[in-house]
Amino acid sequence: MRYQISGKQIDVGEALQTHVKTELGEVVEKYSQRPTDALIVFSRNAHQFVCEATVHLSTGLTAQAKASATEIYAAFDGCREKMDKQLRRYKRRLKDHHRDRTQPVEFGGGSSYILAGSGDAEASEPEGLQPMIIAEMEMRIPSLSAGEAVMQMELSEAPVLVFRNERHGGLNVVFRRDDGNIGWVDPQQ
């Protein structure tokens, strides 16, 4: 598994990196035999240390956890415990959905844009009708079944997930509705 351990305005020493690799490696290997990479970022928020971890699995799932504490090791341990709980909770679902999958999930590229919103809800339309793009990022679009996409969305606690449907190759969207149910958009070919 590839690790990317960094700090935002914090020096992350060798001892902490070794601790992170050992502890997180044990948790991920316990519940998932095929992790691909992990991104761990340490930062400070006033007097507390914050640890954010993202682990990408070859099944296409992305597990995320975040914790904070007054000491950096305690912040990581809290994050590790949340990751452990999350992976344990989804272990059975991962096994059931991916028992027949022999190859890792394929990812395609895509662009993501953040558009500037108008501060005033009743502001008039701009003359050119072209929104101002304030951020542009590359995204990974996984190739999944609808059930796997719902599981990925729940695991990452995201409100929406765009994916390529394995059945027919078209782009699909799953999202959490206001009533708590899951919506699925599958455009006709």
Automatic annotation (TrEMBL):
InterPro entries: HPF/YfiA_ribosome-assoc (IPR050574), HPF_long/plastid (IPR034694), RHF-like (IPR036567), RHF/RaiA (IPR003489), Ribosom_S30AE_C (IPR032528), Ribosom_S30AE_C_sf (IPR038416). It is found in: Cytoplasm. Pfam families: Ribosom_S30AE_C, Ribosomal_S30AE. One of its GO terms (cellular component) is cytosolic small ribosomal subunit. The keyword Zinc does not apply. GO terms for molecular function: ribosomal small subunit binding. One of its GO terms (biological process) is negative regulation of translational elongation. Keywords: Cytoplasm, Ribonucleoprotein, Ribosomal protein, Translation regulation. CDD domains: RaiA. Coiled coil: none annotated. The keyword Secreted does not apply. Residues 130-183 form the Sigma 54 modulation/S30EA ribosomal protein C-terminal domain. Associates exclusively with 100S ribosomes, which are dimers of 70S ribosomes. Interacts with 100S ribosomes. Required for dimerization of active 70S ribosomes into 100S ribosomes in stationary phase; 100S ribosomes are translationally inactive and sometimes present during exponential growth. Belongs to the HPF/YfiA ribosome-associated protein family. Long HPF subfamily. This is Ribosome hibernation promoting factor. It comes from Roseicitreum antarcticum. The lineage of its organism: Bacteria, Pseudomonadati, Pseudomonadota, Alphaproteobacteria, Rhodobacterales.
